[in-house]
């Protein structure tokens, strides 16, 4: 080839590449804006800009690594890894790095159960004891008329106990599935039993999904990881995913290690979860995005796993705004489905919009990663214009008389032996917790907040008008001493 021919070939090649570069540039720009503008949970109206870069927030939340996949128009638009597998190490997180999905294991397991329903091997509304073989739910007066069914397990309305599972450290004995179901040592959780009339109310139950695990094993007559691989993971191309617990040695070195709230690795790198359906999935953000795509497409009949009629049931909100395995939020174009996950040292979030196909999956390898994931999702939502997605809570500062602040000063007991102190000084209310002093900002005469940890408090008064305690983040009632 002569010089002129080489030049023409180069120009032609550049001409073919140009549309790709033009299409890619906006995505790269979007990623850069998201990485540079994480949005905190609370902002002060008229106050300084509190957006911060991703790297700074990873350090602040003591989160060594995270993985992200962003959906747009019903497809994965981009996926990236950030940070390292383990604090102090150099191995980077990539889009193929496995994290524990924690409770996001549940909706993926739900998809397998619904596939068996579609195949006629299970019924949504049959008593699960009719198909359970290795173990059965002990009956009582609550199950005399109303039964535990697959539909009720998937929607957290089966009345089954045990909210979640702490997992088992590297030196701990790991129980069998039946030992977990009956709360027999070495199981570290209570027996899974019915203590609310099935179908009567919503209550989140990891225990219910552990019953589901045994049901799928008994019906398919295969180990649970094999059931999940054949029913869901392989058909959806979730090639970096497995329910094997503990994680096989061959995969251990390339999996993310779990970290505590201070960013220190958990001994043994992570916990083992024999409660696989409830908490045992090892996966990537991109693989979970494939699951999201399948669920959304199934509603329109474009499916590899689930018929549209059953997919619609999966995404129909019932008690507690839950479908079958997924939480449902919003209305109209703002309707979205998803699930969160929280294992020892892992925090994850997954959500998608039913109509637009927008969404994201965020996986982190630290206990501090939950708030980091929330900040990141707000940044993604702002960049992509997600309809109805909640932004930061905007607070307007109020003027509060020094005498009111003085009335709130004192010692408060958050729980037995856990004491914090409030001090009023120079027109400010200061929370003193161990070696930290944090200013509480007023939004009214009874409600205050602080920005660093995004804590909100409301002071409570007794019948005589004196301060009796405070409510922290709407949940924890602290008694004034």
Could you say how many structural domains there are in total?
2
CATH homologous superfamily designation of the largest domain: DD-peptidase/beta-lactamase superfamily
- How far apart the termini lie comes to 89 Å
> CATH topology of the largest domain, what is it called?
Beta-lactamase
Short overview:
With 481 residues, the chain is an alpha+beta fold.
Commentary on this structure:
The chain has 481 residues and is α+β, with helices and mostly antiparallel strands. The chain folds into two domains: 99-392, Beta-lactamase (3-Layer(aba) Sandwich); 402-480, Beta Barrel (Lipocalin), CATH 2.40.128. The chain is 30% helix and 21% strand. It has 13 helices and 18 strands. The protein has helices spanning 3-36, 54-60, 105-118, 150-154, 177-182, 206-220, 224-233, 249-252, 276-279, 285-299, 308-314, 369-384, 402-408; strands spanning 42-44, 65-72, 75-83, 99-100, 282-283, 327-329, 336-343, 346-353, 359-364, 393-395, 410-415, 418-425, 428-433, 436-442, 447-450, 455-461, 467-472, 476-480. The strands form four sheets. Strands 11-12-13-14-15-16-17-18 form an eight-stranded antiparallel barrel. Strands 3-2-9-8-7-6 form a six-stranded antiparallel sheet, with helices on both faces. It has a two-stranded parallel sheet with strand order 1-10. Strand 8 (346-353) and strand 9 form a beta hairpin. The radius of gyration is 25 Å and the shape is globular. The N and C termini lie far apart (89 Å).
